[in-house]
TrEMBL record, chain A:
It comes from the Bacteria. This is NUDIX hydrolase.
UniProtKB/TrEMBL annotation, chain B:
Pfam families: Glyco_trans_1_4, Glyco_transf_4. GO terms for molecular function: glycosyltransferase activity. InterPro entries: Glyco_trans_4-like_N (IPR028098), Glycosyltransferase_grp1 (IPR050194). Residues 14-175 form the Glycosyltransferase subfamily 4-like N-terminal domain. The keyword Transferase applies. Transmembrane segments: none annotated. One of its GO terms (biological process) is carbohydrate derivative biosynthetic process. This is D-inositol 3-phosphate glycosyltransferase. Keywords: Glycosyltransferase, Transferase. It comes from the Bacteria.
Length: 194, 396
């Protein structure tokens, strides 16, 4: 093998390695982008759920005790959102800014309040604000479920790729923080499922 | 919303996935969305709905243990790319994205937000293991995974990792709603009718199980009729039957949709003795929508469809003696059959396309929202030259 052949081979190998690294980096970048999008979507749905709950609470379709319970849980969730907006840097807030407890609380209050008889009464109130408010809470609660699952799937993919040796050796993840799952209770109240 | 749906199997050949895609497309079109379906087509000249674009002829190939009509190759590839370009979709919804056909190719070529629905419960693991490194970067593009049943979800978890959100198959329940009309299958107390639906020569549909139960049923209910609707070689089956069972059985062969509906509406009992391979059990939902009391084998998928009520009676898979006992008991108890019929009608409503499609739309909206707030994606479709650059610091 003369020197030219060796040089060509080395150049080709280097080119292939460079291509692979670039490809892996952009793949990882895309996965990070997906997680960021998923976190924002989840955040938006959570805000919508809290707003819809607050709306239902203040609609006058429920008794005052129920309304107060709902309003309390919903406004706490909204407060946590405004105090720590994710939009600054979604991935920085490693543990979802500790909002899991607040959101679990809202879920639990919704479940405690939306019992079968209450749901039936609200649904019967077709003309008024009750049915409308309930369906908005239902729709946003369903979307919270979806957004959280899709987010956690995206997190799992990023974490899997980031354990690969190429990614670690060449630091392809750059300074991006390792994303974390978001886990809280988002089960729909059984009475609205049927 | 501009929605692109991709079906991997020949659109003009009947099948569960095809019907699912068709119904979704028609439901969203009726709601005013802009829907386009990309699918292989067997017979180029066949009359296809206007919303279908053909991505080439389907070729019968052996895959995952059975022969499927799929499409692949360079012609398909360029048609998929052109369809994506012209469609300019807000969301791309792929069905069976790891089947080697149009869906997988669309996934490969897509830059839109992708939703994927998994239907099968038996992806072959050997093929999946071999192809995993190849498919992984593509499957990472999927932003939302839907499974049509718990079994399909387990398959996703096992073979792809991660999770999937369950949204069941939809059924146009209004089409089956009981109308009270008397047909030639309407039973009488002396001659009660049992309905069986499904290919008669496919063992997993369980005709054998119900046939073996018939002598015991006839001992208790000499007038019972077994009405069998489904394609297959009737003579071959009929020959092997006990003469008494042969006399009580009526083979309709392949029936039209209207006859199927009429049979389900008028049967005294719908029997589903399937022995396996069902990932969803749409036929149970159809029977419940028609008001037929359901007696089914206790497959996981069937138990899930019947719900916690449960809106139907079950018996152990393949247990003809238990089936016979349940038939005799239910036929002799019209009150219980009425109760099951009412529960079934109520249960079926949660599988109506109106309910199901609303959930699918919620998935689309969540995914689009996520895609809109993602940072700008790197140009992955820029081709080889676009990738031939060292990632700059901060880009990686």
């Amino acid at each position: 093998m003369d020197i030219l052949q060796i040089a060509t081979t080395v150049a080709l190998v280097l080119l292939a390695v460079a291509w692979y690294l670039s490809y892996s980096a952009s793949r990882l970048d895309r996965l990070h982008a997906k997680v960021e999008g998923a976190v924002s979507a989840l955040d938006a749905q959570l805000v919508r759920r809290a707003e819809a709950t607050l709306e239902l609470a203040t609609s006058g379709a429920l008794d005052p005790a129920t309304s107060l319970l709902l309003a309390d849980a919903a406004s706490e969730a909204l407060e946590r959102h405004t105090h720590q907006p994710l939009s600054h840097d979604p991935l920085e807030g490693q543990t979802f800014a500790g909002r899991e407890d607040t959101e679990t609380n809202l879920t639990e209050v919704l479940r405690a309040v939306l019992q079968e008889d209450t749901v039936a009464a609200l649904r019967a109130d077709v003309e008024g604000v009750g049915a409308d408010g309930l369906s908005r809470v239902e729709a946003s609660a369903l979307r919270v479920q979806l957004a959280r699952r899709f987010h956690n799937d995206a997190v799992r993919e990023v974490r899997r790729v980031r354990t690969k040796w190429v990614v670690r050796l060449f630091r392809l993840a750059g300074h991006a923080a390792l994303p974390h799952r978001v886990d809280f209770d988002d089960d729909l109240p059984p009475a609205v499922v049927d | 919303m501009r929605i692109g749906l991709v079906c991997p199997y020949a659109f003009d050949v009947p099948g569960g996935v095809q019907f699912h895609v068709r119904d979704l497309a028609e439901f969203f079109t009726a709601q005013g969305h802009d829907v386009s379906v990309l699918a292989p087509v067997d017979d180029g000249g066949a009359s296809l709905p206007a919303y279908v674009t053909s991505c080439g002829r389907a070729v019968p190939v052996r895959y995952n243990g059975s022969v499927a009509r799929l499409t692949f190759g360079p012609v398909t590839s360029s048609r998929v790319s052109r369809w994506l370009e012209e469609g300019d979709f807000d969301v791309l919804h792929l069905h069976e994205p790891v089947t080697p056909s149009a869906s997988l190719m669309a996934l490969w070529a897509s830059s839109e937000p992708v939703v994927a629905t998994f239907h099968t419960s038996n992806i072959r693991s050997r093929a999946m293991h071999a192809a995993n490194p190849l498919l992984r970067p593509s499957t990472e593009k999927i932003r939302a995974r839907i499974a049509v049943s718990e079994e399909a979800r387990q398959t996703v978890r096992r073979h792809l990792g991660g999770d999937a959100y369950i949204i069941p198959n939809g059924v146009d329940t209004h089409r089956f709603a009981p109308d009270g009309a008397v047909t030639r299958w309407t039973g009488t107390p002396e001659r009660p009718t049992l309905a069986f639906l499904g290919r008669i020569d496919e063992p997993r549909k369980g005709l054998d199980v119900v046939v073996a139960a018939m002598p015991a049923v006839l001992d208790a209910l000499p007038g019972a009729r077994l009405v069998v609707a489904g394609p297959g070689d009737v003579d071959e089956i009929a020959e092997s039957l006990d003469p008494r069972v042969r006399a009580a059985a009526e083979f309709l062969g392949a029936v039209s949709e209207d006859d199927k509906v009429a049979l389900l509406r008028s049967a005294d009992l719908y029997v589903a003795p399937h022995t396996g391979g069902e990932s969803f059990g749409i036929v149970l939902v159809e029977a419940m929508s028609a008001g037929a009391p359901v007696l089914a084998s206790d497959l996981e998928a069937f138990v899930a469809v019947l719900g916690s009520g449960p809106a139907g009676r079950t018996f152990p898979v393949g247990d003809s003696a238990a089936l016979a006992r349940a038939v005799v008991e239910l036929v002799g108890d019209p009150g219980e059959r009425q109760r099951l019929s009412d529960l079934g009608l109520r249960r079926a409503r949660s599988f109506d396309w109106g309910v199901v499609a609303e959930r699918v739309m919620a998935v689309y909206e969540t995914v689009i929202e996520g895609a809109d707030s993602s940072p700008v994606e790197p140009a992955l479709r820029a081709g080889l030259l676009g990738r031939l650059r060292w990632p700059m610091r901060g880009e990686a």
